[in-house]
Design brief:
heterodimer; A: alpha/beta; Amidase signature (AS) enzymes; B: about 100 residues
Chain lengths: ~475, ~100
């Protein structure tokens, strides 16, 4: 039962090579044995997983129809609500908070018979690029335990890479699915903004956040994506997908290579592997075009205004009154706020709330927030212009492979720079996928980022299958 | 460099109690980040409209709004929600007095 993709697990269940309970027990045991050294899970939900698996075995016994995700064990980033399980966001402030309802994507997966093994580690409130900002423990990269798994969905990517689940869900605000997928050598999809309902995802930066799958193959990522995508009345920004099927004719495929993503500072080994992957697509018949996305160099600055601004507003809800950590003594209401938040939030969360509060404070709104939203328009237009000529854009997911634990944590700005190739996609609302395309000499995985037009998620998934072989 | 007083003011607006050490650290770190953000000054945006929402063109404006009606939840959900509150009395959430 090692290294099962969704499709293989489904076949095994159908052919009765193993039961759903056997498969679930296999993963639960493996997590117990091996996750001590990786720490990809915050919560393991044995009871829920086994009860879900039993239901599937009953269905199999009755020869009922078996959806492809039925009985397949998966993991959920600990910022997406699963009813009855803790939803800690890797924060002290929500350490004991239990989700009273299911996120829409979880509701959909449960209906299809998914088996939920547990909740995975992340940077606190998804703020970070290394999973070192978790209030509980640092997740290690299964490819090299001295390296970070990337972040913020580091637990979800590591759990898939270490084969501690068949697939997982992450969330991506500025690269939080793609960068850890790249660092851990798995597939990660950041869907178009609005493709998947955000209901039940703890809000971080609402105009950028998206839920998406992390999987062992592109085929698997596509299965999960199509299972959870669609309009949801509970998220007014969600959209019904128009293209559900897309047939790829690689000879007609036009790929754009933006010069701004192959700059000084990119690791030469990464550059070489990415260029090889791009020429592989060319050999299979795709045509390459050099393109320019001239406002790329401003994307990170725009992101570091919009993201903390939205975060500072969203995280105002943690007040020590409705739920979560509460510190007060016998003092005033203001003290409840100040103390609960002062003690409950970690360094990075405080830093971003401070930055956002500053950018939105009286007198600064036009200079920072409004200005950033205008430059965002230019970044979006860059992509619109490029997509008049090409079907997809290929870039490295990250300028470097996984870095050492502790290497960047003391310098926030150097940590922020690891998002340099991923944030533009969120600002423009585009779908993008990171596919593993090779290893460095030190055996660290390298991911290729494939960016598509809005709501052409299935098209970039089909294109990415070139790299499934 | 952000002045100490300004950092304290932001912390109070953000409703976060910070130690002297944290204030000092944030003065430095926030200043470095704000310096980096200054690169946006080069960009001329005088005729550019802001993008608040990247997928706006794709959203069906007719179904975007829903009637402003409250949806009542089952009792057990309400109980769960109240259970989450750190300070409560019967089925009420307790809040510190706001008038002295």
């Amino acid at each position: 039962m090692n290294n099962l993709t969704i499709t293989k697990a489904h076949k095994g269940l159908k052919k009765k090579e193993f039961s759903a309970v056997e498969l679930t027990t296999f993963f639960l045991n493996k997590i117990k044995e091996q996750d001590k050294k990786i720490f990809s899970y915050i919560t393991v939900s044995d009871e829920l997983a086994l009860s879900q698996a039993k239901e599937i075995d009953k269905k199999i016994a009755k020869k009922q129809d078996l959806p492809i995700l039925a009985g397949v064990p998966m993991a959920v980033k600990d910022i997406i609500s699963v009813k009855g399980l803790k939803n800690t966001c890797a924060s002290k402030i929500l350490k004991d908070y239990i989700a009273p309802y299911d996120a829409t994507c979880i509701e959909k997966l449960k209906e299809l018979g998914a088996v939920i093994l547990g909740k995975t580690n992340l940077d606190e409130f998804a703020m970070g690029s290394s999973t070192e900002n978790s209030a509980f423990s640092v997740t290690k990269n299964p490819c090299d335990l001295k390296k970070v798994p990337g972040g913020s969905s580091g637990g979800s990517a590591a759990a898939v890479a270490a084969d501690l689940c068949c697939y997982s869900l992450g969330s991506d605000t500025g690269g939080s699915i793609r960068q850890p997928a790249s660092f851990c050598g798995v597939v990660g999809l950041k869907p178009s903004y609005g493709a998947i309902s955000r209901y039940g995802l703890v809000a971080f930066a609402s105009s950028l956040d998206q839920i998406g799958p992390i999987a062992k193959t592109v085929e698997d990522a596509q299965i999960v994506f199509n299972a959870i995508a669609g309009k949801d009345p509970k998220d007014s920004t969600s959209v019904e997908l128009r293209i559900k099927n897309y047939e790829l004719r690689i000879k007609d495929l036009k790929i754009g290579i933006p010069e701004e993503y192959f700059i000084k500072g990119i690791d030469p080994e990464v550059e070489k592997i990415i260029k090889q992957a791009i020429s592989q697509a060319e050999k299979e018949g795709a045509k390459l075009f050099e393109i320019s996305l001239p406002h790329t160099k401003y994307a990170l600055a725009v992101y570091y205004i919009i993201m903390p601004s939205e975060a500072s507003a969203n995280l105002a809800r943690y007040d020590g009154i409705k739920y979560g950590l509460s510190k007060s003594g016998n003092k005033s209401l203001l003290d409840v706020y100040l103390e609960s938040r002062g003690q409950g939030f970690g360094k990075e969360v405080k830093r971003r709330i401070m930055l956002g509060t500053y950018a939105l404070s009286a007198g600064y709104y036009d200079a920072y927030y409004l200005k950033a939203q205008k430059v965002r328009t230019l970044i979006k237009q860059d992509f619109e212009n490029a997509f008049k000529k090409v079907d997809a854009i290929f870039t490295p997911t990250s300028p470097f492979p996984a870095f050492k634990i502790g290497e960047k944590i003391a310098n926030p700005l150097s940590m922020y720079l690891s998002d340099v190739f991923t944030v533009s996609v969120n600002l423009a609302g585009l779908p993008a996928l990171s596919a593993p395309v090779g290893f460095t000499k030190a055996k660290l995985p390298v991911g290729l980022q494939i960016i598509g037009k809005p709501f052409e998620d299935n098209k970039i998934l089909e294109i990415s299958k070139i790299y499934d072989k | 460099m952000i002045q100490k007083q300004e950092a304290q003011k932001i912390a109070k607006l953000a409703r976060i109690k910070l130690t002297e050490k944290e204030i000092k650290k944030f003065q430095k770190e926030l200043s470095a980040i704000l310096d980096y953000i200054k690169t946006l000054n080069e960009v001329d945006v005088s005729r550019i409209e802001p993008t608040f929402h990247a997928s706006e063109d794709f959203i069906d404006k007719k179904t975007l709004m829903r009637p402003d009606k409250s949806e009542s939840q089952p009792e057990e959900v309400v109980d769960e929600l109240i259970k989450s509150a750190p300070d409560k009395k019967a089925r009420h959430i307790k809040v510190k007095a706001i008038f002295q």
